[in-house]
Amino acid sequence: MKATIRKAKIEDAPKLAGLMNMAGEGIPAYLWEQMAEPGEDVMAFGARRVAGSESGFSYTNAHVAVCDGAIAGILLGYRLPDPYDTGPLDEIPDIVRPLVEMEALVPGSWYVNAVAVDSAYHGQGVGHMLMVRAEQLADETHSKTLSLIVAEQNAAARRLYEKLDYQDHARRPIVQFPGCPHTGDWILMTKEIKPSS
């Protein structure tokens, strides 16, 4: 299998929304359901949000791995602000508050918000390729650190990150929501990178 990576395009939004929801352990769809119009399809609403340019979940922050013309996986990421201002924490939805608190611990890092591989392409190195691209993007933005958050029960993802030399940095309890696939903690993992120049 030969995969290439390119910047995401606005027309990728429906596929991006599905993969972002997978990477986000169902949190995106849960939040989109709260925001969608009555009767509106949740994933259609999510695609509309992803097609915008105003949020971190925008397609403008995404790269896609493409195999034989099909999107095999996504990387959504960007450099976190430094300093990082969470704003009033009581205005942040309960289920994402622990994530925001941990993002604030690594200001200026290049944050892997979401990485996901379509099930048809599992085990073919797509996730590893996307994580290598994340390091390149971090270097391009002069970030000294990469960061990501993973559920401690997501053993496959944790194995990949540990193999790539990510270290546990902090943890917060997962706030349960309908359909939440995990209990336990969210783990913030970081990796120091050496600049290429």
TrEMBL record:
The keyword Transferase applies. InterPro entries: Acyl_CoA_acyltransferase, GNAT_dom, YpeA/RimI_acetyltransf. Keywords: Acyltransferase, Transferase. Residues 3-194 form the N-acetyltransferase domain. The keyword Metal-binding does not apply. PROSITE patterns: GNAT. This is GNAT family N-acetyltransferase. The lineage of its organism: Bacteria, Pseudomonadati, Pseudomonadota, Gammaproteobacteria, Oceanospirillales.
